[in-house]
Amino acid sequence: MPRAKVSTVVLDAHDAQELADFYVRLLGYEVRREEPGWVLTGPADGDGVSLAFETEPEYVRPVWPTRLPGDQQMMLHLDVEVDDLEGETTRAVAEGAVLADYQPQDDVRVLFDPSGHPFCLWVETEE
């Protein structure tokens, strides 16, 4: 049986470089490859999922949570585990993220990146 694995998640944006720069700062990733309208980033140690960003001139920001029929729905979101939820939330906002108005859980912070993609910062909690 052939082996398959997800190696890269690609996010569309109005400006691939701007969004790549945000995630490089947020995650400590490095740029691995660039082409006009496309940037590949990943962890410096090579261990983990790469993120790529593609310029899409007709990109429409998603709405989360969806409010009305016909809203552009989010198609995915990234979960980012952190040690210090409040500190990393503050840092993410300083880097250009926007804190969502609706926060469904105490151990998770929902934010939007500069292109409007939702992502979650979360911290391991003891049960």
UniProtKB/TrEMBL annotation:
It holds the Pfam family Glyoxalase_6. Gene3D superfamilies: 2,3-Dihydroxybiphenyl 1,2-Dioxygenase, domain 1. Residues 5-127 form the VOC domain. It comes from the Bacteria. Signal peptide: none annotated. This is VOC family protein. PROSITE patterns: VOC (PS51819). It comes from Streptomyces spongiae.
